[in-house]
């Protein structure tokens, strides 16, 4: 390459940098605008500043690992997990093809939405329901099913697509962390293949940074095409102690920040915040029945009891949806 | 922010861009300099160009997933897998603490390096050896052990640290892929916790992009500190069909490029190259006894037989170490 070409490339780079200048200015605006001023927002901004600034709390970028629960932390989980609605819709399709199942349990309980019966389902019933709706097809066929569903199914209260029921303040927190060199992961009890149908579009988190529960699987050549077959049986339950175990397996680093909302996140929070150096644990407290839902210690879904008790001793930040969030959903008016 | 400050930031960005200009010039030098001109190098460069250029073969950056086997693909695996040397060293330490094991199998075979006996070890023997050397401690304690070992242990032939026995042409290929928006993963039969002790330093691949075999694990609070305990028992064997299954679980995307060197990589290559759109499969053929090793169809370690037969039909590129690589190791003279 001659020097003229080099100069031309240099000039092109300069022009590109000049074009990027407004983006720099935008970033210097108030970060996390949907968070109200207060102890939670301040604690987050302080933590990010400390671990990114040379000094005693500095953490190199490769170790800036942040893990987020999904259901109830990044999107709505009440009154029932979204994946349970997906499962019920799949059971409906199954019963349409096999009408003799209509009066049999556990299908009947699911189709009737019979809470008393549902509460009585055994673990074997639940595994069977997952097996029959989440396996017996290729991973690609399941991904298509899950994506079609998430792109069309609306919830009962907000009349929105489920994938729109994500929390605007959390989207801003994820962005703020990534802008500061963090790698953001989802670590959720939800099915990994179900979540990957929307997590990149909804949160900007690529599939390989999504950890979840999984079934067994196998590899086969079908018509000379390699496919992954989703098999019956539980692979990994990514909940409670399963979360730190899967973090070690998939990430290989203890996170420095973890955000959850239920006792299912207790061990992930313990693992994250008992490491050496600067650490941050956060719990989203659903205390806003007007804008979303209010539940904690007595809830069947997203029960928050032990982790709430442990929070003060461990120095975890309990985020109040009502007090700390200026706006809940992206579709809310800017000042709701 | 007033306009003067904005201008100052803009100028700072311009100066930073100007400083980066030599790096741009360096990138425009001949990529992958340790690869000889020839069909393999041309096929790789063409593939990368096609998937990064708008046109029929274009692949968006998020789907530019490349998976690499480790043993025999990124570093030396002959005459014996490095992790087996680590295991043998750990067995020695175990027997020093428990001298009564010295005359018992399978320990005796390992300590004597008795190939005939070693070939006779059952799967249960091998699992026991792994259990006794790779579990019974926290993940952090094991990581320290593995890192100390890899930072001090030298091989018999080259008298180098094992972690220096990485292939210079592959380092350049990994860099070339990443410079073109690929995300690079290791998918290896090696133990994931062992590999993570050197993979980031050796290859620039972060721990969460390293997939390997694993044992069982649990979470516990020890003196109120959350730890991962490495437990006996097999978690996942990341070899043969286990590779595409783990790719689906950990990455959630079919790779568009896979590089292996043995029949253990056959299914990963099949899975990668039978997807739609542009795909590339590569096999490193060890045919260079002078600079490294020569082995294929009859080898106990890194046997390459079925995959070599399947390569022409599938259009996989068989890379000849002897013919395609100008230089093998980073410590080799520039023109060896």
SSE map:
2 copies of one chain form a homodimer.
Chain A lengths: L2 H25 L11 H14 L12 E4 L13 H16 L9 H6 L2 H5 L3 H12 L2 E2 H12 L17 H12 L3 E9 H4 L3 H5 L6 E13 L2 E12 L5 H9 L6 E4 L5 H8 L6 E6 L20 H9 L2 E4 H4 L12
Parallel strand pairs in A: 1-3, 1-6, 3-4, 6-7, 7-8
Antiparallel strand pairs in A: 2-5, 4-5
Helix pairs in contact in A: 3-6, 11-12
Features:
homodimer; about 325 residues; alpha/beta; 8-stranded mixed β-sheet; 14 helices; 8 strands; globular
How much of the polypeptide of chain A forms β-strand, as a percent range? Answer: 15-25%
Element order of chain A: H for helix, E for strand: HHEHHHHEHHEHHEEHEHEHEH
- Interface with most residues: A-B, 53 and 53 residues
Morphology of chain A? globular
Average pLDDT confidence of chain A is 91
* Spatial strand arrangement across the major sheet of chain A: 2-5-4-3-1-6-7-8
Major sheet size, sense and barrel closure of chain A: 8 strands, mixed
Oligomer: homodimer
Give the N-to-C terminal Cα separation of chain A.
Answer: 58 Å
Provide structural commentary.
2 copies of one chain form a homodimer. Chain A has 336 residues and is an alpha/beta fold. Helix content of chain A is 42%, strand content 16%. The first copy, chain A, has 14 helices and 8 strands. The first copy, chain A, has helices at residues 3-27, 39-52, 82-97, 107-112, 115-119, 123-134, 139-150, 168-179, 192-195, 199-203, 242-250, 266-273, 306-314, 321-324, and strands at residues 65-68, 137-138, 183-191, 210-222, 225-236, 257-260, 280-285, 317-320. An 8-stranded mixed beta sheet of chain A has the order 2-5-4-3-1-6-7-8, with helices on both faces. In chain A, helix 12 links the parallel strand 6 and strand 7. In chain A, helix 11 packs across helix 12. Chain A is globular and about 65 Å long. The termini of chain A are far apart. Mean pLDDT of chain A is 91; it is low at 1-27. At the A-B interface, helix 1, strand 4, strand 5, helix 11 and helix 12 of A face helix 1, strand 4, strand 5, helix 11 and helix 12 of B.
């Amino acid at each position: 390459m001659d020097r003229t070409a080099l100069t031309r490339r240099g000039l092109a780079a300069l022009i590109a940098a000049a074009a990027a200048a407004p983006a720099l200015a935008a970033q210097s605006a108030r970060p996390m605008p949907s968070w109200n001023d207060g102890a939670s927002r301040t604690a987050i901004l302080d933590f990010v500043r400390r671990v990114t600034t040379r000094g005693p709390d500095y953490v190199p970028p490769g170790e800036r690992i942040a893990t987020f629960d999904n259901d109830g932390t990044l999107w709505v989980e009440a009154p029932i997990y979204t994946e349970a609605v997906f499962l019920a819709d799949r059971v409906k399709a199954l019963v349409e093809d096999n009408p003799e199942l209509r009066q049999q349990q556990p299908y009947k309980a699911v189709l009737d939405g019979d809470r008393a019966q549902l509460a009585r389902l055994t673990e074997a019933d639940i595994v069977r329901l997952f097996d029959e709706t989440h396996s017996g097809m290729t991973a690609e066929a399941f991904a298509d099913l899950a994506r079609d569903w998430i792109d069309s199914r609306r919830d009962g209260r907000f009349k929105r697509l489920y994938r729109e029921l994500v929390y605007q303040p959390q989207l801003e927190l994820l962005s703020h962390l990534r802008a500061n060199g963090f790698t953001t992961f989802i670590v959720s009890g939800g099915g990994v293949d179900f979540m990957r149908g929307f997590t990149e579009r909804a949160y900007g988190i690529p599939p390989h940074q999504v950890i979840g529960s999984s079934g067994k699987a196998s590899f086969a050549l079908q018509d000379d095409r390699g496919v992954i077959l989703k098999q019956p049986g539980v692979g990994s339950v990514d909940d409670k102690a399963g979360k730190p175990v899967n973090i070690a397996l998939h990430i290989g680093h203890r996170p420095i920040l973890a955000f959850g909302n239920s006792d299912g996140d207790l061990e992930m929070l313990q693992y994250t915040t008992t490491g050496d150096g600067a650490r941050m644990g956060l719990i989203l407290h659903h205390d806003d029945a007007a804008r979303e839902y209010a539940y904690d210690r007595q809830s069947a879904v997203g029960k928050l009891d032990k982790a709430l008790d442990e929070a003060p001793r461990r120095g975890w930040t309990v985020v109040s949806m009502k007090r700390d969030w200026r706006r809940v959903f992206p579709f809310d008016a800017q000042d709701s």
